Amino acid sequence: MVFRFPVKIALPKHAYLNGRVIKDHFKRTQVAEHEVTRNALKYIARNTELPARARVEAQLQLTSMPNYTRPTQIVDRCIASGNARSVVSDFKLNRTAFRNRARLGQIPGVKKASW
Amino acid sequence: MLARGSKSIRILGFRWNSTSNASAKYLSPAELIEKKKADALAEQEYKQDLLSEKFTYSPQILSKEAIDPVSKRPIPLNVELLKYKAIKLPKTHGHKVASITFKGFDPKELDHAAEFAARAAFYLGIPCGEPSPQRVQEKLITVIRSPFAQAKSKENFKKYTYGRNIVAYDANPEVVDTWLSFINKHKFDDIKYKAFVYTRESGDFVKELDALTAGDLELPDSYAGAADPVSQKVAELLKSEEFKKFFDEEQPEQAPKSEKSA
User: Fold this and answer.
1) What is the CATH number of the domain that holds B161?
2) 0.90 cut: is pTM over it?
3) ipTM for the complex?
């Protein structure tokens, strides 16, 4: 079987795995790898003291980089269910996974609120 | 209440009678001097009695066994002291030198960590204050109980973050470093530590700064190899063939321009 992603990656450990989770994980590794290059190209493209053609070249290189190197492509996903909706960012958990655990007292520092 | 009050007054009166003349409510200067002399003599006698008498050292301690049943050795004093509140050293000047804040979800564990720091400070000879509790940070998290049609029914949770703070005074920066690194070595996994270190400079510190040259400024060793990777990459990119040509183009363009203006 052909490997689905253009670059080989290690699968995430200690997290729920499905296709979408692996896809997001792949993007995360690639964004981390290309972060320095992207920021350097952005710096060149936005530096008005550099020659205009060099800046255009940097902008072209930026746009020609694959989509999966963009930080905006990363989505927060629940590590227990893989869901991307209503993720409580403090705990990386979806609302359902969070509620179940919080009710059982499995999340440190979290209690049922009453006022 | 009344009866008790009258009784105590009577007792007070009795004592007065026994110690001094009943008639003299106030002592005359000569009498006062005599009384003071007598008191001093009595005090001296008492002290001499204390010194002449041989007494055995028997401190009151909390641990029941004097000899540890496991190691079969006497329990060391510093181990015994763990059962007591951390000893505080008196401040010499009261200059704040460092402060550590502990943040975590378990107040008991926080107390443990803060007390550990206080004890370490005592053994290093750092005067430090008692661990003081900080305001509890509350964060409200509201989730829906059920999706879509019943989404109006919500459940509220709160995340409580507790804090402790400890302040150290009047210690050398080296001692403070030792203290902080010792605490860092034995840190708790679930606690977030944050240390502030304060230094004092002389009045003409600004002049000293002005007199400094670039050669005098040296970053600490911990900054070694911490050059900005982005700036390194920018330099590398600009030296590459793809970008070099744009710089080569620009120079001949600039040259005729300058000729024209001249």
Assistant:
1) 3.30.70.600
2) no
3) 0.84
